[in-house]
Amino acid sequence: MSGFRQARWNEPLVFERSKIGTIAYSLPAVEKEVQKALPKPIESIPPTLRRQTPPELPELSEPEVLQHFVRLSQMNYCVDLGLYPLGSCTMKYNPPINERIVQNPYFSWLHPQQDESEIQGILQILYELKQWLAEITGMNQISLQPAAGAHGEFAGALIIRAYHAENDELATRREIIVPDSAHGTNPASAAMAGFNVVVVPSNNDGQVDLQALQSAVSKRTAGLMLTNPNTLGLFEQKIESISEIIHDVGGLLYYDGANLNANLGRVRPGDMGFDIVHLNLHKTFATPHGGGGPGAGPIGVKGALSPFLPTPLVSFDGTKYYLDKERPKSIGRVHGYLGNVLVLLKSYAYILHMGSLGLKAAAEHAVLNANYIMKCLEGVGGYSIPFAPDTWRMHEIVISAKPLLRDTGISARDVAKALLDRGLHAPTFYFPAIVEEALMIEPTETFSKEELDRFIEALREIAEQAYDNPDLVSRSPQHTAASRLDEVRAAHPRTMALSWRMYQKRSKSQSTTQA
Amino acid sequence: MPAFRHPFLPNAGEQQKAILAKLGITSVEALFKDIPSKFRFKGKMKIPEGLSEIEVRRHIEMLLEKNSTPYLSTSFLGGGVWPHMVPEVVHSVTSRTEFYTAYTPYQAEISQGMLQALFEYQSLIAELVDLPVVNASMYDWASALGEAALMTSRLTKRSTFLIPEFIAPNRKAVLATYTAPANVSIQRVPSNPVQGKLDLERLKEMMSSEIAGVYLENPAYLGYLEPDVDAIAEIVHDAGALLVVGVDPISLGIIRPPGDYDADVVIGEGQPLGNGVNFGGSLLGIFACKDDRRILRQMPGRLIGLTTTTEGERRGFVMTLQAREQHIRRERATSNICSNQALCAVAAAAYLCTLGPTGLRRLGEQIMQLRHYMERQMSKLDGVLAPRFQATHFKEFVFSLEDRKERRLSILALMKKISQEKIFGGIPLNLEFPKLGESALVCVTELHTKRDIDKYTASIQQALEVE
Q1: Cβ pair B104:A292 closer than 8 A
Q2: Angle at CA B300, nearest 5°, toward B296 and B302?
Q3: pLDDT greater than 70 at residue B465
Q4: Which of A188, A294, B175, B260 is the most buried (most CB within 10 A)?
Q5: Residue A212, in any domain of the structure
Q6: Residue A367 sits at the chain B interface (C-beta within 8 Å)
Q7: Nearest of A120, A123, A344, A336 to residue B81 by alpha carbon
Q8: Do residues A161 and A303 share a domain?
Q9: Does A330 fall in a domain?
């Protein structure tokens, strides 16, 4: 066993630590003359708008606030601790220098509505980042505005919509096609942009079934959303035929950039026939994911589609950088300002740090790591590697714990939880749905062979344990801050608590019922 | 293999050889053979050569220093992202690598810290807005508005959404982008030209069985408070529509929370709660609703719930009600949102714990005092109408240049002129709202002092006199 023990602080909710009269705030004094001008500010508020009872926020001292959150942080796994092999999430190293860079006051105090002459530095950075991302993806024009990958997909789907509307075909082109192995955001984004979703199956090699695709397309087809390599980690070799099938019926080809990492410097979506791409900077371009966000989801398009990109567009007229707002065909704004610029700036630093050779090397190391894991797991009892047995994977691999479930009753979920007990994050599980008991593993270039060996050894050990003593595995995790949690209770109308306030109310009504 | 080495790549040299040996290949090229050769990128990408850490830093510092940065005390720019203090303790919390280098807490048992912090964020905002259900964040206020409009349309099966006449143009633009594909039409409710508040008579006339929801902001985009909230809520609900209210959360230590006047959905911009200005690029979309199953089922975004371990012995936190979300429901999800602004939400949680109820009230009072002082000083200037609207304001107000024959200076020129003294004077409104004439929106926060305000008014006065 690993000896791993995550902190278990039994940390109360911050509300339960509150002690009336304690303060952690520190406010500047207001000059007498200013105070005298309005001695009782609350009385200047119309009575219908005064807050009568103060919000029930906790009262703590500053050291207690910090202690609380530091304790919470110790009950959280992160990529700086070790392998975080969430497939399709590309959890790579987040260079600390980038965190330092964004604290520069020339950035942190900059307001988005300053005059363009005052923000030339940041606009230059954003403009150059656009140029680099266009070069990396083989696209002509980029918008940095979407705040996350799914936000980029939404913008991309709106561009598909705008393109067909421009051609007076929107009334018939109602369908967006997605493979059955697509990320869940693809159909959701297509639906938000007003399209119907048509799903095409994968063939036995785990690739888009060309015959199925051929029979799915028609004059109703607006576009196809695809990720390449796909979610099995396989490169869609028939990409040229796929592109032809879609373009022949007048549809557009959309590239989901979640799996771009393997392609850096090797193959570009633009060259493969894609018309629109989105990128996930918090994946491929090394920005931290912040426990769920902020991310950044720039989109790129081929030249003919650039009039539709979100407005405004960071542009350069040869002497100065500016925000192009004269974009009558644009889909409009998707963000209040220019997107998650804090994240964009970190990716700018990352690309500068890696350079073209570094990015290409990162892709190679990531692919080596994924295939190393696959090779080491071949023949390990309990797991199988479905689809395309003799084919190298790209950025990720998908294994199945189906044999283990059949033989021992131990599921992919159990394996995932047992990994947590060994101080390793679990892979993405039960996705893609075309693999039963799926464990989707993306090691990225960040982790050493030693860390990969630790992971492989853990998977092997868990399988052995499953055959010897399945109860031990099914009880895991035991060494994390919490053991398995009751998800039914969390979602049940009688016990559901989405806030401290709801929790107190539900507990009260329950105790009344019991009494 | 090329002997390329980089500080971020651990498997150089011996380790890489061992990996290649295990794979039974001599070169990494073998792994890429599935890429059709006609698509292989053969050249070298036209991006810079890699730099060292110090060069990266130096280069970016050089570029950033081309910006003219509002030193905190001389910027009066707000309008949706505002300069406020970020207590150092908040920065310490969000700088914890355990928080910022984590992914979405998909594996709850090993991610309790983030889950509890986000649950606390939801709980703290619930207290602030006086509604029990809060999601774990949206991208920003603008996208939260778009999602709220769509949600009211799904809930009522109606397709018109009403917004106030004076709304931030960028917010309105995002709303239009979100609602267009769902064929939800947006109509504006006129405002009282003197007080700014919604015209209740016109609102009544506009209400019909077509109206899905009505949106109001408190404080409004132009800084004034909307006093007729109870009457508005009644008009909206009588017509079977939903009331959506947008807030600046930092005002809610002293301003009545929308839950208290029966708002069904509350949205807002959480950036003032412990997040920097950052060129408008680390925002926090607040999204809250009533504890009503029908509404809850239509809510977009992630929700963290409090539960127990399966043995029932200990408390714990999980992502819940995921059947609304894209990874389960796919094309029938309530929204496609996946990544959100989680770390900004953690900052907001730490911020609200730092301020507490007293701090937030005192902060609100102090901001109102400073704003009032500035209004008063500005109103003394010849040729300036301040505040433009006869109403109580929170931290922002509009001032106008009086329409005089001899005046030549436009609001834009005036702002440009005082910017030479490093004063970032406000957001000109002449393009956004021509009917307001030569006007600007100015923002005052706790970061301003009497000296800053006096300097500002003196500069305006001087600029107008020199004219």
Answers
A1: yes
A2: 95
A3: yes
A4: A294
A5: yes
A6: yes
A7: A336
A8: yes
A9: yes
